Amino acid sequence: GAVVSQHPSRVICKSGTSVKIECRSLDFQATTMFWYRQFPKQSLMLMATSNEGSKATYEQGVEKDKFLINHASLTLSTLTVTSAHPEDSSFYICSAPSSTEAFFGQGTRLTVV
Amino acid sequence: AQSVTQLGSHVSVSEGALVLLRCNYSSSVPPYLFWYVQYPNQGLQLLLKYTSAATLVKGINGFEAEFKKSETSFHLTKPSAHMSDAAEYFCAVSESSPRDDKIIFGKGTRLHILP
User: Fold this and answer.
1) Residue B30 has what DSSP assignment?
2) What residues pair up with A60 in beta bridges, in sequence order?
3) Chain A residues contacting B, CB < 8 Å?
4) How many CB pairs below 8 A link A and B?
5) How far A83 CA sits from the closest chain B CA (Å)?
6) Cα(A10)–Cα(A111) distance, rounded to whole angstroms?
7) Nearest one of A74, A107, A71 to A91, comparing CA atoms
8) Count of other CB atoms within 10 angstroms of residue A60
9) Residue B53 has pLDDT above 90, yes or no
10) Environment class of residue B5 by beta-carbon count within 10 Å: exposed (0-12), middle (13-18) or buried (19+)?
C-alpha cells in the first residue's frame, strides 16, 4: 500500500520555541492531507485539513496562528507548532487519503519542557 | 454530521478465544467505514474498510467486519485471538471518499489478550 512518512518521530523542545513536523506521501500525490492530535489513551482529533496550494481548513477550537500548516507541494505538508508550551505536548499524526482509504504517518511524539 | 461509538474502552479475551469489538455509526448518507489498529507510539494501520461493496469485509491478520445497515453497526471480529493482537483499535467513518471528506474516529477500544 501507499506509504506516508512523518518526521521526526520524537522531538523534545523548550517552552517558547517552535517545532516543525513533516508529512510526506512517498509514492502518490496528495492534494489534501489531514493533521490529527492524540492525547494519551484517547482518540484522534482532527486539527486541520491541509490543502495543496491554498490555505488550510482548521477545525473549531484549533488556533490557526499556533498550528501553522503549509502544503507547498503535492507530496509534502508541514505542521509548525509555534511558541510551544507544555500543554502542546501530544502525539501528532498526519494522513494522506486516496479515493478509498487514508494512509497514516508513523506519528510524532512532541514533548515541550 | 457523522459519528462513531465504540462500546467498551477495554476488552479482554483469552488467547484463542473469539474477539468482538463493537462499533455503531451515525451517518446521513451511505458511509465509508474503517477499522484501524494502533500499536504504542505508532501510527494507524488499516485493518479493513467498507465502501458499499460486500457487507462482510475481510481484512488483514484474520479480522473481518460485517456492515449491518439496519443496526447501523460495523463490529470487528476475529475467530481466534493471538497475543500479537493486543493493541488499540479504532472504528472510523467518512461520509464520502477519504479524499473528499474527513474521517471521524471513535474513542478506541484497547484489546487485552490473556494468556
Assistant:
1) P
2) none
3) 1, 4, 6, 31-32, 34, 41-44, 46, 49, 91, 93, 95, 97-107, 109
4) 61
5) 24
6) 8
7) A107
8) 4
9) no
10) middle
Helix (H, G, I), strand (E, B) or coil at B62: helix
Kindly tell me the burial class for residue A22, based on how many C-beta atoms sit within 10 Å of its own C-beta (0-12, 13-18, 19 or more). middle
Q: Which three cell numbers stand for residue A48?
A: 486541520
pLDDT in tens, A14-59: 999 999 999 999 988 888 999 999 988 788 999 999 999 889 999 9
Let me know if B37 is exposed, middle or buried by CB neighbors in 10 A (0-12, 13-18, 19+): buried
Which residues does residue A90 pair with via DSSP β-bridges, in sequence order? A110
Which of B87, B42, B38 lies closest to A10 in space, CA to CA?
Answer: B42
Residue found under cell 455509526: B25
